[in-house]
């Protein structure tokens, strides 16, 4: 039975790390990346603990095993993960609803992942429903960035209700789409 809850232990956070590791580009074939998607940022246990202490991550579990996650990241973590510095800088330079993104109360979907054997079963949708249930009273919207190469993630987020806000090219040449989900 699949349950949707928050990460509340080191075991949960290590479950996130395990799922993350198996979905990094270095551990996938080009075909898997194109068809199934991928994650790009590597988080340490310390990173996940710190973020989880501010706003808990949403996880799906099959029994005791983490099978999906949505990371919750606030602006308080802006200086913690160097690869995300450009995203947070972008939030000061682009607008949503007539104001810079950084001037809103927003929650960053720090990363999402659903285990391979659970994809296509509505797990992501139910994780996002739990995310909104727990966070929408404190934040104006959820925002994230997705590599434009990650077409599965782009399509999944569009289905959830995320809308494109801005695209930019990172210093490494990667093209990113910043998307927003108004509750």
Describe this structure in words.
The chain has 183 residues and is an alpha+beta fold. The protein has one domain: Aminopeptidase, CATH 3.40.630. 33% of the residues lie in helices and 30% in strands. The chain has helices spanning 10-21, 30-36, 45-54, 85-93, 123-135, 151-160; strands at residues 2-6, 58-62, 65-73, 95-96, 99-100, 106-114, 141-147, 163-169, 175-182. A seven-stranded mixed beta sheet has the order 1-2-3-6-7-9-8. The longest helix has 13 residues, at 123-135. The model has no long low-confidence stretch (mean pLDDT 95).
Write the layout of secondary structure elements.
Elements: E1 2-6, H1 10-21, H2 30-36, H3 45-54, E2 58-62, E3 65-73, H4 85-93, E4 95-96, E5 99-100, E6 106-114, H5 123-135, E7 141-147, H6 151-160, E8 163-169, E9 175-182
Parallel strand pairs: 6-7
Antiparallel strand pairs: 1-2, 2-3, 3-6, 4-5, 7-9, 8-9
Structural class: alpha+beta
Number of helices: 6
Gap between N and C termini, in Å?
Answer: 27 Å
Low-confidence stretches: none
CATH topology: Aminopeptidase
Query: Helical proportion?
Result: 25-40%
CATH architecture: 3-Layer(aba) Sandwich
Strands of the widest sheet, in order across it, are 1-2-3-6-7-9-8
Q: Report the strand count.
A: 9
Please state the CA-atom Rg, rounded to the nearest Å: 15 Å
What does the main sheet amount to? 7 strands, mixed
Highest CATH level, the class:
Alpha Beta
Short structural summary:
This protein has helices at 10-21, 30-36, 45-54, 85-93, 123-135, 151-160, and strands spanning 2-6, 58-62, 65-73, 95-96, 99-100, 106-114, 141-147, 163-169, 175-182.
């Amino acid at each position: 039975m699949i349950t949707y809850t928050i990460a509340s232990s080191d075991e949960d956070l290590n479950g996130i790390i395990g799922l993350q590791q198996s979905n990094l580009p270095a551990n996938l074939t080009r075909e898997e990346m194109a068809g199934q998607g991928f994650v790009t940022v590597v988080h340490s246990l310390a990173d996940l603990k710190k973020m989880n202490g501010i706003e808990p991550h949403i996880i799906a579990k099959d029994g005791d095993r983490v099978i999906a996650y949505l990371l919750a990241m606030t602006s308080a973590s802006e200086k913690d993960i160097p690869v995300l510095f450009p995203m947070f800088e972008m939030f000061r330079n682009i607008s949503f609803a007539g104001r810079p993104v950084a001037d809103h109360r927003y929650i960053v979907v720090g990363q999402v992942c659903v285990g391979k054997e659970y994809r296509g079963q509505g797990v992501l949708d139910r994780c996002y429903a739990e995310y909104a249930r727990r966070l929408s009273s404190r934040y104006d919207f959820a925002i994230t960035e997705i590599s434009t190469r990650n077409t599965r993630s782009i399509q999944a987020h569009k289905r959830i209700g995320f809308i494109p806000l801005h695209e930019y090219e990172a210093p490494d040449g990667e093209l990113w789409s910043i998307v927003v989900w108004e509750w």
